[in-house]
Amino acid sequence: MGGDGVRYARWDGVGRPFRIVTTDRPADLATDLAAGEVLVEIELATICGSDLHTVAGHRPTPTPTVLGHEQVGRVVATGAGASVCPGDRVVWSVTVACGDCARCTRGLEQKCLRLRKFGHEPITAGWTLSGGFATHAVLPPGTTIVSVPEDLPDVVAAPASCATATVAAVLDAAPALAGRRVLITGAGLLGVTATAMAAAAGAEVTVCDPDPARRLQAGRFGASALVTPDELPTGVDVAVELSGSTAAVAGCLAALDVGGHAVLAGTVSPGPAVALDPERLVRGLLTVTGVHNYRPLHLARAVAFLAGHHHRFPFADLVGERFGLTDIEHAVTAAGRTPALRQAIDTRR
Known about the structure:
This protein has 349 residues and is of the alpha/beta class.
């Protein structure tokens, strides 16, 4: 595979194995950085559920590609005008926005008209190191980059750029949570992160999940009550749907008290429609908001939350084994076998 070359795991499509490819040396890449570009050496990447959906063929992705969008790394070199310096430990956003289009100027950078997504783009001559399953990444201008404290464990920091930042955006769409009754449906990584954030904000949090182990996990992240889908409460102020279940969406809407807010973020694939009673929506002064991706400020909030609370909540326990980059096939298999845990790839191995 070569000595000090940069390596990445190339994915060519459903049913085809990952291939480890070696390209230029980091020093060679550094000399070719354009203005605003940043070269990062990746310390650790984690495998997100959306990566598994892609590999299984449930999510369309252009190929060949470098998957992975949850990672933490250290800046190696920068192009002119970059906002970070060599040596900085950082995480970065899934989205790359142009900053100039009508959506970006309206504060909808996560839906930029020229949006690119880290870990979701085809390999091109202009952007090969575009995913986290690699020893290095090149971050184009328009990528949000946030510094990470040295004492924040890599297994805690890596998911910040997906799960934690998404939850920060979800809760930003709700009213202030202190003293509120909050229902969260789905107790995967998003759900337990939302539980911890809401509990830390002073909410009384009920978590619903059909899996007893996941419910128990949510209890370790600050849930006041744990229920099954048949035990959903009523009269809640905020309902947060993170499972993607159509029944859970309906349950969240039914659970709201007068003036309640439902924030939906789990449904990212086509599914059955959910009935909506417009009279109840009107008379109940209800608000329903959808959230997808996140804005730059949410990544900064995610890192700040993890830095301030990772000792209180067991985020490190949510990541299982560490695999080397050459063992990525085994890592993906393990991730599919244990969906309650993220599996880690130490890209330097």
